[in-house]
Amino acid sequence: RRCPRGLRLPRGARAPSAGLTAFPPCRFLLCASGDFVKVYSVSTEETLRLMGGHADLVTGIQLNPHNHMQLYSSSLDGTIKLWDFMDGIPIKTFTVGSKLLALYTLASAEDSVFVVIPKKGERDTFQLVSVKLTKGAGQDLEVKELSVILAGVDASMKHIAFGRGGEYVVSVKDVNLQVYFFKRRLLNRFSLSTVKTKGGDNRFSCVVCHPTEDCIATGHADGKIRLWRNFHHRKEYTYSTLHWHHDTVMDLAFSMEGTRLLSGGVESVLVQWHNESSWQKDFLPRLGSPIEYISLSSDGALCCTLHTDNRITIINSNLRFSRSIQGLIKSRDVKTGLVVDPRTKALVLNGEPGHLQFYSLQSDQQLFSLDIVQRQYIHQAGLKQSDLVKVAFSAQGTWLATVEESEEINDPELQLKLWFYDEETQSFKLNTRINTPHDNHITDMCFRDMDELEHDSLILVTTGRDCVFKVWVMVEDTDPEAQQSVSWSCDFVGSYHNYQATNCCFSEDGSLLAVSFEETVTVWDSLTWDLKCTFCHPPGNIRNICFGRLTCSKYLVGATDYGFLCCWNLLTCALEWSAHLNVVILQPDPLSEHIAAVSWLSKESSLFVFKPNEPRPIYIQRNLCKEKILLAAFVPRDEPEMISSERYLWLRRSQLFFLTDTQELMTLSTKSLEERLTPSSKQLAVEESLPVTPFSLLLGKHRHQQAQEDKDPGKPVVHNKQEQASPAVKELLHTPAHVLPSASFLCTIFINSLLISKESKSAEEIVDEVEMESEKAEDDSDEEDVTEMEQEDTGHVELLGETTCKLSKSQEKELRKIRKTDYSWISAF
Amino acid sequence: MAAYKPVVVQACPKLGERITQDTLYWRGYKTPVQIKEFGAVNRIDFSPVQPYNYAVTASSRIHIYGRYSQEPIKTFSRFRDAAYCATYRDDGRLLVAGSEDSIIRLFDISGKAPLRQFEGHTKPVHLVGFLSDKYRIFSGSDDYSSKLWDIPSATEIISYSEHTDYVRCGCASKVNADVFMTGSYDHTVKLFDARTKSSVMTIEHGHPVESVLLFPSGGLLVSAGGRYVKVWDVLKGGQLLVSLKNHHKTVTCLCLNSSGQRLLSGSLDRHVKIYSTTSYKVVHSFNYATSILSLALSPEDETIVVGMTNGVLNVKHRKPEEKNEKSQKKRQPAYRTYVKGRTYMPKQEDFCVSKPVKRVLRKYDKLLRSFQSSKALDAVLEPPIMLHTPEVTVAVMQELHRRGTLRSALAGRDEKQVNLLLTFVARRVIEPRFTPVLVTVADMITDIYQPVVGQSEIVDKQFLKLQEAIGKEIDYQEELLEVLGMMDTLFATFTKKRDICLEGNKSNGLTEIIETDMNY
């Protein structure tokens, strides 16, 4: 299979689909996320390490009961890996051979772990097996000793639990509960009546065991929690029932001593049951989204809940919300599309229900979540919730327009809200709320992108299924004592033949507005609101429209249902060209004239990048991914990236992001995965993990002094720098002239490199610059060949490595001096 | 984790009067005291010194009232004919008045008989006043002349006869003792300097001038005549600054408030309008029973006195401000504990621990938070909420509907509660902002209580009322649609014309120009 080069997931954008957590003593939070295991710092919420190595989904992680600095992880690729998570190094890999669906460890079981594997030859039947971890010298080991403990178990890891001290194992499936006692080799089976009591569905959903007593707690699909005791006897067993949840109990967890039981479910309420006082309840309500997993830290001080929307909440032992770790929040349906906030360059889309999330792509963090609907969200199935459907930013990001509607089809209860960015509070503030701006669903919305200095130039256009488009303008309040000076009101209502308005788009200079009405595109003058001309490419409704930009601003591009991509010339009012292409998304780059079109044909998405002035695309990527791409957005880069290949030149100023129907965020990148994943905070974390001892304090003080000494700009440093600069300059002079950039461009850099600057501008930077120059020269001479480029990439890394080596040498002498003093100090101690 | 979000109550912009600081200020007057005079009240003047008595000129008498007295504390009645324009001197000890018999009389406040009489005019004198040096009097008369008199010698100093019609109003500059101005029915206001023989400036008002006023700074002049109030910049040689036309009958009197920030004008149209002197917009207006002839505001805006054509004097006193006193009393015993640490300003290195803000939830919000839908509905069906803030009731109903518990909240109610519910629905269902929600509520009520219809007379009556209300609304809407249809036909004819000219621009075969909105 031809894999597109450099198509990579950005970090953490994938949901922790097998979200399993483990707490080593309160410092780190480990979480399985996709093919990786992530290590978070509990105190700073940051991702400290990303441990990759599994080839498929990680299904289970467990701390090594004999060494709390080690972690076992199992994956669908059939391997168990042992990690040192402090350093992020895989210690050992055990290959089991079949898919591993869950992993359990026991303190009492010496060097063996328990996994759930599918039974050979039969589909959908699974068995719990004990795996003897072979001891060997090498890193990769083959596991041979497998012994079946329980057959006919369920695949989910929540359906098996080990009892007090590892004496017994409990497994639940449907309405059956089986307990296996290791010592007595006894298997007890219990089953609930399959007859559905009124509205109830008493199937098991999860099971946990009491840590000190012989007690099993099971959660059920009807919201009940059953506590089983006396299950040594087949007949005289007892159970009691706790009932608070109205829907499935998703997970249960006992506290360390077993005095408390935590339960969670769809209601997104964490319930704490007290063992002693007749199961009294405490609640932690409104956690935001349904709880999927509950996990406790090994010292019992913290508890964390994993939510369905890709979020981890850390909760104190006294049931107080502490902090939350969140990446890209997964919402049920991304209706808003991918929008880029011009101010923060963050990706903006639906977040929690009724919220808008601002997701920073650089840091893989949610910047903030803006509550748009401002209503209490009730977690209950079958309710008509109102949610955000459209979002638009003005060009500078000072205004934000949002549309929310309820799910009811006949009476959508529409609201258009306009938010103003308040510089003081650094957040958006509600300015105007318009109830039922249209009589039917709003299909599209856009601002006029122009200088916002002139107030009257800001215009918002909404199109609706009620066959009109509306123009909203800012109105200044005449009353000087009013609280806010501006508000929005409707200025113009346009319609065309009573067709439904589907899309709208402003030209780059804001003089023209294109509105598509089913099969027709209409172009309006934005000053007088006169209909200027219409375009049509029958048959088929218009799906997307956009204006060309910069040099191509005289073109209007549209895509139709019937699989045509058309480009009209606005000056001649004629069709310039058209192509047969089933375009799903049409996305113009705000910084260049490129337009990206994503097509969906025979179960594969393809990407085409073209300029409107010529019908031939400049970049084609067939078979981009198997999933259907729903949304795309160009995100401007902070600084133009050096891209050598002409094929990827269109990615220079902005990056293209996609969202697929499985809610995975993807991007096209020319860099390799390793480069993107270099953990920047690696060293920081090591320092942080050091225990605070008097020695470390003293050492820290000394280090501080040392750092200050290093900072002192002295003559020897300058000397070194000159020596450093000379080889680079030499290289520059030896490069053939015809591959160098113009002399005027190099002159300042060259002269600067010769100068002895007074500031302590490190030699590193200058060398770097020079290296970059020479490298660029190489690039120019290179041909556009993928394989060659990759070589060049590695060359680049090597070059960088060299420079750092040289640097360290240059300062080694000084460091040695310092070290001498260092040792003398220790001996004095 | 988020806190509970209270129910969003849809705020609708209130139509009609908007409440501003001004409305609050000018509403702070007690109900007026009405005093009957013998004839039309042509002039009210407040004494500039404590205790701010005021002289009211009506018919042939001048009454002096105290601040809260409803009976005159003193009366000057030595007039043979109607008296006009009784005005206090700056020190509040002398009073001058003109009269129908063309004689100007000067009274001492404590005496009864006039101190001086100035004779020289040949026609009734409607305007008299003191110059700001206190020793001279200016006057204007129906013989078109205006004169200046010396008080000690009771002699005429100078006479100007430049107006060509009755001189009916005027005022003296507070800044310069020699400057005064008169307004006349010949549509002009003339500015005189006592040191020169003729007028210094003439301002053309355009209507017979009924009242003139100089700002305390002396730079701006306000003239009223006809329906207009005009403001002139005197220092720029009488340039028109702004022309206000807010009355629909002749403006008869003008007055400034104590701070000089607000201008008041009274008119024959029974209104007193209050303007801001910065924006010259009407910030408030008062309504009176009959046409207003004269108007005065006491120092510190304590009292507004308005004289009317039917001889009624309308006196409004300002309400004393009670709130401040009360709150001060409350705070006194615990003063120290309150003050402790209040004035401490956190320094830069201080770590501030802020007190958790306790959020106050309304009763229905508390009930909704704990999912007690029926009780939440009860809470908003209480008369004060239901009557004064129906939007709250409707918002809670909408929230319940959203949660899917509206039906169970509405069910299981007794006769009294159903009656209450139906009254509310029948009354509010026709309000457009409530209609969508209340129609669902009405639907549910009829569904739930259908089996028991006919068991209670009161409830049946309410059902009929609801039916009636809805029937009426439907008729009304039908009528509106008819009107809309008619208007659309008219608009359609306009559109057609424009399309024709658009079609002229047709340039290419591919472009098709299709008329907008032609399907009416």
UniProtKB/TrEMBL annotation, chain A:
Gene Ontology CC: one annotated term: small-subunit processome
SMART domains: WD40
Family annotation (PROSITE patterns): WD_REPEATS_2, WD_REPEATS_REGION
InterPro entries on file: Beta-prop_WDR75_2nd (IPR057644), WD40/YVTN_repeat-like_dom_sf (IPR015943), WD40_repeat_dom_sf (IPR036322), WD40_rpt (IPR001680), WDR75 (IPR053826)
Example GO biological process: positive regulation of rRNA processing
WD repeats: 51-93
Chief site of localization: nucleus
Entry's Gene Ontology molecular function annotations: RNA binding
A Pfam family recorded for this sequence: Beta-prop_WDR75_2nd
Source organism, top-level taxon: Eukaryota
Domain WD repeat-containing protein 75 second beta-propeller: 338-663
Location(s), subcellular: Nucleus, Nucleolus
Acidic residues composition-biased segments: 766-792
Gene3D superfamilies linked to this entry: YVTN repeat-like/Quinoprotein amine dehydrogenase
Chain residue ranges for the region called Disordered: 702-722, 766-803
Keywords: Nucleus, Repeat, Ribosome biogenesis, rRNA processing, Transcription, WD repeat
SUPFAM superfamilies given in the database record: WD40 repeat-like
Protein name, UniProt field: WDR75 protein
Species name: Pardalotus punctatus
Source lineage: Eukaryota, Metazoa, Chordata, Craniata, Vertebrata
From TrEMBL, chain B:
Annotated WD repeat ranges: 118-159, 244-285
Protein's UniProt keywords contain Membrane: no
InterPro entries assigned: U3_snoRNA-assocProt_15_C (IPR018983), WD40/YVTN_repeat-like_dom_sf (IPR015943), WD40_repeat_CS (IPR019775), WD40_repeat_dom_sf (IPR036322), WD40_rpt (IPR001680)
GO cellular component, one term: nucleolus
Gene Ontology BP terms: positive regulation of transcription by RNA polymerase I; rRNA processing
rRNA processing found in the keyword field: yes
CDD domains according to UniProt: WD40
Localization, UniProt: Nucleus, Nucleolus
All residue ranges annotated as the U3 small nucleolar RNA-associated protein 15 C-terminal domain in the record: 344-490
Keywords, in A-Z order: Nucleus, Repeat, rRNA processing, WD repeat
PANTHER family xref list: U3 SMALL NUCLEOLAR RNA-ASSOCIATED PROTEIN 15 HOMOLOG, UTP15 U3 SMALL NUCLEOLAR RNA-ASSOCIATED PROTEIN 15 FAMILY MEMBER
Role, per record: Ribosome biogenesis factor. Involved in nucleolar processing of pre-18S ribosomal RNA. Required for optimal pre-ribosomal RNA transcription by RNA polymerase I. Part of the small subunit (SSU) processome, first precursor of the small eukaryotic ribosomal subunit. During the assembly of the SSU processome in the nucleolus, many ribosome biogenesis factors, an RNA chaperone and ribosomal proteins associate with the nascent pre-rRNA and work in concert to generate RNA folding, modifications, rearrangements and cleavage as well as targeted degradation of pre-ribosomal RNA by the RNA exosome.
Stated name of the protein: U3 small nucleolar RNA-associated protein 15 homolog
Species for this entry: Pardalotus punctatus
Upper taxonomic lineage: Eukaryota, Metazoa, Chordata, Craniata, Vertebrata
Gene that this sequence comes from: Utp15
